[in-house]
Amino acid sequence: MLAEHRDVLGWVMVGPALLILGGFLAYPFVLGIWLSLTDTRIASPGRFVGLENFRYVLGDSVFRLTVLNTLLYAGVAVVLKFVLGLGLALLVNREFRGKRFVRAAMLLPWIVPTSLSALVFYWIYDSQFSVLTWALRTVGLVSGYVNYLGDPILARAALIAANVWRGVPFFAIGLLAGLQTIPRELYEAAEMDGAGAWARFRWITWPLLVPLAVVVVVFSTIMTVGDFQLIWIVTKGGPANATHLFGTLAYQRAIQGGFLGEGAAVAVFTLPVLLVCVAFAYRALRRED
Amino acid sequence: MTVRGALTQIATFYVPLGGFLVFLLFPFYWMLVTALKPNRDLYNLAQNPLWTWTPTFDHFRKLLYDTHFLPWLRNTLVIAVGATVLSLAVSLVAAYAIGRLRFRGSGLLGVAIFLSYLVPPVILFIPLSRIVSALGLWDRPAALVLTYPTFLVPFCVWLMMGYFRSIPQELEDCARVDGASRWQAMRHVTFPLALPGILSCLIFAFTLSWNEYLYALVFLSSTDQKTVPVGLATELVTGDVFQWGPLMAGALLGSVPVAVAYSFFVEHYVAGLTGALKE
Amino acid sequence: MGDGRSVRVTRREFLREGVAALSGMALAGLGVDALRSTAHAQELTYPVERGASLRVLRWSQFVSTDRPIFEENARRFTQRTGVPVRVEYETWTDVQPKAAAAANVGSGPDIVIGFFDEPHLWADKLVPVTDLAEYLGRKYGGWFEVCPQYGYSPPRRAWIAVPIGAPGAAINYRMSWVREAGFDPDPAKFPKTTDEFLRLCRALRARGHPTGFALGKAVGDGNVWTHWCLWAFGGRAVAPDNKTITINSPETANALEYARALYETMIPGVAGWLDPHNNRAFLAGEISLTNNGISIYFAAKNDFPEIAADMNHAFFPVGPVGRPTELHLFSQAYIFNYTRYPNAAKEFLRWIMEETQYSRWINGMLGYVSHPLRAYNNLAVWRSDPKALPFRDAVARMLPHSYAGRPGPEAARALAEFVIVDMFADACTGRRSVRDAIRAAEDRLRRIYRS
Fold first, then answer.
1. Chains near B (3 or more Cβ pairs under 8 Å)
2. Do A43 and C104 touch (CB under 8 A)?
3. Domain span including residue B25
4. Which of the listed residues A38, A181, A272, B97 has the most CB atoms within 10 Å of its CB?
5. pTM of the model
6. Which residues of B, range 48-67, sit inside 8 Å of A by Cβ?
7. Domain A59-288: homologous superfamily in CATH
């Protein structure tokens, strides 16, 4: 009796989610794909041009650079966030004085609106006014100025650092929730069997954490690939387009330049890139299972 | 506690924790100093950037009295709460369906929901504006409450699916054998066990709604309808002059209270839940 | 454009012509000079629709006196016509996405005050304002040359926007350091040619006071100086036919060589500079000279009086082409044709451009925004503080950013993608040789203008 009703019940329960996602997401999504196949300008309808936008975009050196930027940015940032987030989660997964304060304080980088924290980094990375440079100079590690945002490599590193700063809380809190549901008894039993800290982690914590870790990593990858506000406010994609991601390039082309079809094509290009990232993350974690 | 034990603890706990806290909180300290520094000193390179001997409350005053900060705070709160409640309700139910019921087509649906992230808001906002306008929601907070779930629901569904899957089916079956309906089993057994996940979703949804810029920029217009991120940019970024003091004051006032509120929720991430699993 | 098209004027106004001429004379006494033509001083008004109300979207104020005055003008408009006006503000770079959404959706603000070729991006969604533009031009001594290039749409054969003004830019410099470097700090004696200007910058640098010009994605400052430099040496991105890309020329190479020399005099880090950076650097005494609007001076008057006393403004120098080739942030107002009250909208635009309102506004902004109509050369603000004088001629001395082509979607795109700024940044930092930088820019422009 359960089996027959299960399907109906299933679809009913999923209904509201489908409604919202269908109306506000699927339709614009399909429209977005459609736009990428036309030469629509921002206020004038376009004609169907097939894959012309994609052909154009692939031939554009700025776009090719953007693909590299995005892969580099997402790859490095997500790995760093995962490692640091896991470390932090492991650290705070215990009773200690001030636990409440720490667990709330560690969320702050993620809570503060990106449009504002980006401004903070904008100043922190200023070539003349940077407090980082001041500190490094005081300690004696550098003399003169550090050109964080004017040098392509430094700019990328700077933005990755800012993104990691902002993203660690997300990983930490997500993984912490996972750690919290691992029963203490398992650890106690293992300790009695003589397992050390690393063994406990490798054979108890990690396997039980993997499903959650996969979800968190996948979504962080998606959000990192789609990063917009941080890049836009701090460098607008410069210097020399070294920090352009798909989101910023799409915005520049579609909204500022008015070439909506082409901007949509850039955005749609995130699809294969994203699938690659996600499959990679998925497999890397699944291998541990 | 032996000396060696104490040293170990310092090395393996306090030092790393301290390191993390400095890394995560230093920019906030810097924001505070900037919000308290008089304008003159902000531009003065000779000054120590980490301290000010002449703090001033002018920037906070300007933020609270000369801008519409408090209405913006209220708007952002209302919208974030609305979007969070809506997303959570929808996601929990959907996640249970996909993760537990395993009905026909649920696998495909799980993947399809994930695909919804693949077109970024930067492109979506144009077609979305048409929908919002058609629904008559232009310049109304309801527009955001209805559009934010588009990027909140997919993640929450996936997260909760994971949680529901990891809760042993036996617990629910036991409850149902004891006479509970499916709904009661859900409410009294499954959801409480998944509480850390639910709280994660809540924090995630609220924070992302709080943070959002582009939709809030495009769908809202009047000054007192704006959200905090958009409002601060509108009134405190005047051409090529950024009013750093009030901006940083706004950043602090717009995030610290939220963190304080969270600290009450985070307490429920308690390992005491494992007790329930033993039964 | 004056090709025999009849001016839309209500019948009442024909009769009032005589009275209007007299009041026109009276207004002249308020300081707007006799360049104003009194021969055709008929007052133009539009019959406002019944029950009309207006929404205006414009850029956030650059100076705190802007908003109260603008809204006071709007209030008086409401008193006079009974049309309530709601003004909405967005940071200046956020106006375009909102206008884009409105254009796409077919509803939103009735009037938008945006920048550059924004109206051309949705030209066929706008209400033609030829009659209003011609009226204002006639009444106030004529538009400066660049105005019809921005306001008139050849595809539509009509004006689609009314130029409002331009936040002007000038060379900001520290007088004492310029004197130290052996040059006369008086703005009238400030280097007028690019050669002399380079000598000044080198001398400043030699004395430990480097210059600084933005080479990052600085929407205002970066575009302004790089376009000035390019045009000063005769380089141009595109030909008047708006199709042929002409950037690959010896003139462009000369401009880039000059910029490289200038780069040697700059402080390190300019390749990452956005708009606010040079303000900060100047106010901290890190640089002696930069291009900027009047915002540095304004901030100095408030917080750094000693710098305010020591700084001054001068025109951009003139290059080998022998005439001014400046770029400023051109702002114009346009009306979406989904509006239900086109007459009320036109009447509002007319109102704010008329002498009483416009003078109050421009004077109140203390030099932040420069006027597009010749008669306003005599506004009080240009006589009040001598340091604000160079900003008076901003619109007179400027070329459209699309030079030598036309404002439109292609030019908008080239500007949005920082093609020119990137070219200069590449050449100056040495990331690319001058030849390669030009080729890269040419390639990008070819792709942009190909349609």
1. A, C
2. yes
3. 3-56
4. B97
5. 0.84
6. 49-50
7. MetI-like (1.10.3720.10)
